[in-house]
């Protein structure tokens, strides 16, 4: 829950156009999200519901911060990066969905470049180096959003291709097992 509070703070800071501080809150909140699941598993206190809740809250946090970023672009009249933020939210959800759906079909699906840690790093760079707050005349926020948009789309494609290949292999193996012996 610490990660959720920090990411809510990050979204509020972004809305107030304090991108550097929003980036710091986002980074610390994301680190907390990484540590809580690991701690639960290592301590033996983890539950299936806890894992479910953790993944769900992670998606909410990422969506909240990206929504705040989209709003700031839209408020400034920057329609293309605002729309790209919406695409990133969709891409982020689809990266998670493709993995969850694949695993429901019995296929492990951790492939792809734009996993959550990669998305966190890209968004962190964009926030910390956004609006020239840290280094004047350097604004990487839109560039990080565009990178995330491309990489999430690519990752969804990677996962779809991976699952297709794995399911074809399973089907072929099953057909081989069902043939009558010679």
Which secondary structure elements does this structure contain, and how are they paired or packed?
Elements: H1 2-15, H2 19-43, H3 48-75, H4 79-104, H5 116-128, H6 141-178
Distinctive features:
182 residues, mainly alpha, Four Helix Bundle (Hemerythrin (Met), subunit A), 79% helix, 0% strand
- CATH class designation: Mainly Alpha
- Please provide the ordered H/E string of secondary-structure elements: HHHHHH
The CA-CA distance between the termini, in Å, is 60 Å
Looking at this structure, what is the CATH superfamily?
CDP-alcohol phosphotransferase transmembrane (TM) domain
Largest sheet: none
Q: Give the tally of β-strands.
A: 0
* Helix coverage percent: over 70%
What's the CATH architecture? Up-down Bundle
Task: Please explain how this structure is put together.
The protein is mainly α. It has one domain: Four Helix Bundle (Hemerythrin (Met), subunit A) (Up-down Bundle). 79% of the residues lie in helices and 0% in strands. The chain has helices at residues 2-15, 19-43, 48-75, 79-104, 116-128, 141-178. Helix 1 (2-15) runs parallel beside helix 3 (48-75) and helix 4 (79-104) packs parallel to helix 6 (141-178). The protein is globular, with a radius of gyration of 19 Å. The termini are far apart.
């Amino acid at each position: 829950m610490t990660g959720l509070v920090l990411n809510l703070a990050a979204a509020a800071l972004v809305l107030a156009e304090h991108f550097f501080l929003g980036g710091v809150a986002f980074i610390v909140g994301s680190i907390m999200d990484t540590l809580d699941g690991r701690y639960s598993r290592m301590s033996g206190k983890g539950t299936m519901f806890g894992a479910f809740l953790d993944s769900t809250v992670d998606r909410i946090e990422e969506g909240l911060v990206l929504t705040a970023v989209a709003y700031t672009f839209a408020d400034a009249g920057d329609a293309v990066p605002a729309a790209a933020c919406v695409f990133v939210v969709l891409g982020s959800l689809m990266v998670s969905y493709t993995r969850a759906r694949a695993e429901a079909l019995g296929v492990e699906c951790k492939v792809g470049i734009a996993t959550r840690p990669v998305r966190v790093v890209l968004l962190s760079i964009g926030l910390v180096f956004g609006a020239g707050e840290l280094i004047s005349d350097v604004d990487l926020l839109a560039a990080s959003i565009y990178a995330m948009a491309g990489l999430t789309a690519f990752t969804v494609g990677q996962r779809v291709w991976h699952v297709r290949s794995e399911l074809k292999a399973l089907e072929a193996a099953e057909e081989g097992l069902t043939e009558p012996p010679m």
